[in-house]
Amino acid sequence: MQPSIEYILLVIAVLILVSILANKVSGRLGVPALLIFLLVGMLAGSEGPGGIYFDDPWIAQAVGVIALTYILFSGGLDTRWSEVRPVLPQAAVLSTFGVLLTALLMAGLAIVVFEVSLLEGFLLGAVVSSTDAAAVFSILRTKRASLKGMLRPLLELESASNDPMAVFLTIGAITLLLNPNLSPLILIPLFIQQMAVGGLIGYGMGKAMVYLINRLKLEFEGLYPVLTLALVMMTYGVTASLGGSGFLAAYIAGLVLGNSMFIHKNSLMRFHEGIAWLMQIAMFLTLGLLVFPSHLIPVIGSGILLSLFLIFVARPVTVFLTLSPWKMALRDKVMVSWVGLRGAAPIVLATFPLLAGIPQAETIFNLVFFLVITSALLHGTSIPFVARHLGVSDPLHETPRLSMSLGDGCSSGNDLIELTVPLQSGVVGMQIVDIGLPPGTLIIMIEKAGNRFVPCGSTVLEGGDHLLVLTNQPQSNQVRSIFIPEPFAESTGP
């Protein structure tokens, strides 16, 4: 009997609500959200109390690809270029050669232990070679696991940029398995094409998003989120159609947009944060529904072996070898080695062999699913402890969002700027009336020593004051230059 639309909508609503409530509990227990969402999906599945039969890897893959696209875009949107630029070379090496080395090491284990062919072993290694961006973002941006220095930007950039390489290696391995006569050398120009096209289109679409958002002047503010949703889908679709990496393009587009000035920025940032959470829930629920828990039992032994090898051998070896050209403290390399969470990307990639009809596809999927659960339990729960033990944890000092209480009620010709006055700023010790703000510019709120108030002309500015400034868009850069000396301009962000 075909279920009614009312029933389907009710089930979807209940699953999302349960996932949200479970996520609140997971935060208190120190368990990664992805594990909770997977568990809810498994309980709702055919072998759980929910009894929902789902066995369609194509739908699961489609949901996963769409979800990862928006998650990576949101991750780029939240990333400060000034923070990640110093670690760009290290992250680039980790997300390319590091992924390849991880795949080769895991392939070696699979060949020796499971007695599979070279290409089958490499396929398994490629599927599990990338870390999970959603999990890394959510864990490292909490007070429990904030890291010192460049560790957080490095790990976030690596996790956001290594999915394209893993996708490329997985598809490449499947292609060679299905076409034994092909030479592996044909993958080299394909890799260059994927990265180049993805990077160029991602940058171009990011710039196009900024231009369209600022110039269209839509009648209703609610259309701006719809516009960005469509542009993100277009970014992935156009890039993939031209033979590029859609995931890389989505992340770069988000990075370009997030580090630019555009109207309704605060509301759009909050909107895409919500979309990213919705995508996480939808993706992990779907992947949880796809797995049959009884099928995991036969692979427990092999899964534990794979997990331990990945966590304690493959990941550390990869990190220490790829980061050897740079001078990094031993404890920093150990921390990078430990933050190797596997999550959505490996499970989504494990559906590729299923759809391609690879003989060992189901075994690979079950092994990968078990490995993800193990990684989430071990990595996700222990990262704060390991960070404190290594001495690399740093309490997260959140920048107050003054505009949260005011919303984005300014017109499309105005801009709300949030900035912190540096100690070296020339306005320190000056009254607002003496600063010389451009016409039409107002400081509408100040946070000073934890107290928020509306200033007057005689208010004296001090280093560390957090300001909310309303100005005309053409004057935004001029206003920033008044408060922020040139050497500090880049670190402040829009």
CATH topology of the largest domain, by name, is Na+/H+ antiporter like fold
Shape: globular
Low-pLDDT windows of residues? 404-412, 487-494
The percent of residues in helical segments reads: 55-70%
The span between the termini is 54 Å
How would you describe the overall organization of this protein?
This protein is mainly alpha-helical and 494 residues long. The protein folds into 2 domains: 5-390, Na+/H+ antiporter like fold (Up-down Bundle), CATH 1.20.1530.20; 402-492, Alpha-Beta Plaits, CATH 3.30.70. It has helices spanning 5-29, 33-44, 57-77, 81-84, 88-114, 118-127, 133-140, 151-161, 163-178, 187-215, 223-241, 246-258, 265-290, 293-296, 300-322, 330-338, 344-356, 361-390, 476-483, 486-492; strands at 414-420, 442-448, 451-453, 466-472. The chain has a 4-stranded antiparallel beta sheet, covered by helices on one side. A hairpin with a 2-residue loop joins strand 2 and strand 3. Residues 404-412 and 487-494 have low confidence and may be disordered.
List the helices and strands and how they pair.
Elements: H1 5-29, H2 33-44, H3 57-77, H4 81-84, H5 88-114, H6 118-127, H7 133-140, H8 151-161, H9 163-178, H10 187-215, H11 223-241, H12 246-258, H13 265-290, H14 293-296, H15 300-322, H16 330-338, H17 344-356, H18 361-390, E1 414-420, E2 442-448, E3 451-453, E4 466-472, H19 476-483, H20 486-492
Antiparallel strand pairs: 1-4, 2-3, 2-4
Helix pairs in contact: 1-2, 1-13, 2-13, 3-11, 3-12, 3-13, 3-17, 5-6, 5-8, 5-9, 5-15, 6-9, 7-8, 9-10, 9-17, 10-11, 10-12, 11-12, 15-16, 15-18, 16-18, 17-18
